[in-house]
Amino acid sequence: MRQQFQLPGAHSSAIDRRLSALVRHLGDSSASSMESQNPNQTIYASVTASFNGDSVFSNIVRAPEDPILGVTVAFNKDPSPIKLNLGVGAYRTEEGKPLVLNVVRRAEQLIVNDRSRVKEYLPITGLADFNKFSAKLIFGADSPAIQGNRVATVQCLSGTGSLRVGAEFLARHYHQRLIYIPLPTWGNHPKIFATAGLSVKTYRYYDPATRGLNFQGLLEDLGSAPSGAVVLLHACAHNPTGVDPTLEQWEQIRQLMRSKGLLPFFDSAYQGFASGSLDADAQPVRMFVADGGECLAAQSYAKNMGLYGERVGALSIVCKTTDVASRVESQLKLVIRPMYSSPPIHGASIVATILKDRDMYNEWTVELKAMADRIISMRKQLFDALRARGTPGDWSHIIKQIGMFTFTGLNSEQVAFMTNEYHIYMTSDGRISMAGLSSKTVPHLVDAIHAAVTRVV
Ligand code: KET
Q1: Where are the chain's structural domains?
Q2: What is the model's pTM?
Q3: Which element (helix H / strand E) includes 192?
Q4: Bigger pLDDT: 5 vs 366
Q5: Can you give the pLDDT at residue 14?
Q6: Using CA atoms, how far apart are residues 335 and 345, in angstroms rounded to an integer?
Q7: Homologous superfamily assigned to 68-100+373-455
Q8: What is the rounded CA–CA span in Å between residue 196 and residue 275?
Q9: Active-site residue 260, yes or no?
Q10: What is the mean pLDDT of residues 369-384?
């Protein structure tokens, strides 16, 4: 015991410090005996410092706000009555209010009224029904991988948690530590993968000149990626650009990736939000599963079921055989247990209740389609209003792009101007959340964009 744990010196690593704390906690006598020999090199030194005045944390540097969630922080501080938050990708009604789907309220009612439900811990992997139906939702009920029992699915903390668990798993068990993410991509992607210990590189995705896909650049970059590298793909409704490959382009991407042994990791945060159809939006993922190859998929129910704060999602790893899938699942449990032990029960119960019941499922698809349609109608209204106003520029990308966001092409100075002068909040890369817009607020946004492009260059 004494040899296993070393007390930290003044510049010891975080791991040393954690081990040392463990020693103290376990009451190992070596800890106190070493402390008395050299008091400056013990974990007690910092505690003493705090008694003498300064905070033990006084050297901590203030971190910047998150580039996306920080927009909401700034928005909340603004007292202006005309302020508009087009930052975070969260759906709002025509009245600008958050929406809880009717079907979600109905499912919650059933859950609350069911006295047989208890609050016991879920298994490490989460709610079994939730996992089963989540896999069916993304891969399709008739998926060869599901029928062949080759999918390991674990419930995770929404899309972010699913990506992170997948990243940790890959960092521990996959031979290739390199992941390619699109340029640009959701701002949290590089942080999630780098924090898990993977090396992150980008592949060309968006062409600012055409405001469309840089397909040639994408093929070249993936074509020169080392064999086995992981490739992060947005399943649909690419964030922030709103630009997706066509199905023919997906097929070319699939062939290239399979021929080079690149491992696909799908991020599916917007299933149903691109086209309004859950099945259509899952097509790219299903193409990769249909060829019998392996892949990972992270699902989020934040947007498509409006369960943002419930933190409900799933990670699925499609394997070649049942045996591999069950070994993968056993290792996923070892990733999850020390992180948060097991996932929360409420949100997953809502999702499972809805996915299991044909009636509720149908009700969900209708509500989901209505959200997607409202976003599409906002695109049309914004585009028409900019045209009618004669705002310089070609704004057709607003109606060509899909999903929650429009990548406007406005630069960071123009965005800052719109925030300062018009109280319109959006991410500095010029992304606006179409789901935050309504018929009533379109004219205000058009005024702001018009002023920005004519006055700020
Ligand atoms: N993937 C993508 C592509 C994504 O846009 C988000 C969230 C997530 C995963 C994670 O969502 P979760 O809530 O963990 O299920 N994007 C919006 C919110 C955020 O940044 O957290 C956004 O881009 O505004």
Answers
A1: 68-100+373-455, 121-356
A2: 0.89
A3: helix 188-195
A4: 366
A5: 46
A6: 19
A7: Aspartate Aminotransferase, domain 1 (3.90.1150.10)
A8: 33
A9: no
A10: 96
Mean pLDDT of the chain, nearest integer: 90
- For the chain, give the number of residues: 457
Distance in angstroms between the alpha carbons of the first and the last residue of the chain: 66
* Ligand 1 pocket check for 86: Cβ under 6 Å: no
Measured in Å, residue 189 CA sits from the centre of ligand 1 at 9
Task: Kindly state if the Cβ of 186 falls inside 6 Å of ligand 1.
Answer: yes
The ligand 1 atom nearest the CA atom of 312: 15
CB atoms inside a 10 Å sphere around CB 199: 12
pLDDT digits (tens, 9 = 90+) for 229-268: 999 999 999 999 999 999 999 999 999 999 999 999 999 9
349 lines ligand 1 (CB under 6 A): no
The CA-atom distances, in angstroms, between 311 and each of 110, 179, 239, 349 are 20, 25, 19, 12
233/253 Cα distance (integer angstroms): 10
- pLDDT tier, 457 (very low <50, low <70, confident <90, very high otherwise): confident
pLDDT one-digit tens code per residue, 294-332: 999 999 999 999 999 999 999 999 999 999 999 999 999
- Extended beta strands in 159-240, E state: 178-183, 199-204, 206-207, 212-213, 230-234
Q: Which of 436, 334, 351 lies closest to 83 in space, CA to CA?
A: 436
Question: 198 vs 13, which has greater pLDDT?
Answer: 198
The reply to whether 400 belongs to the active site is no
Q: Which letter does DSSP use for residue 435 in this model? A: G
121-356 maps to which CATH number?
3.40.640.10
* Active-site residue flag, 186: yes
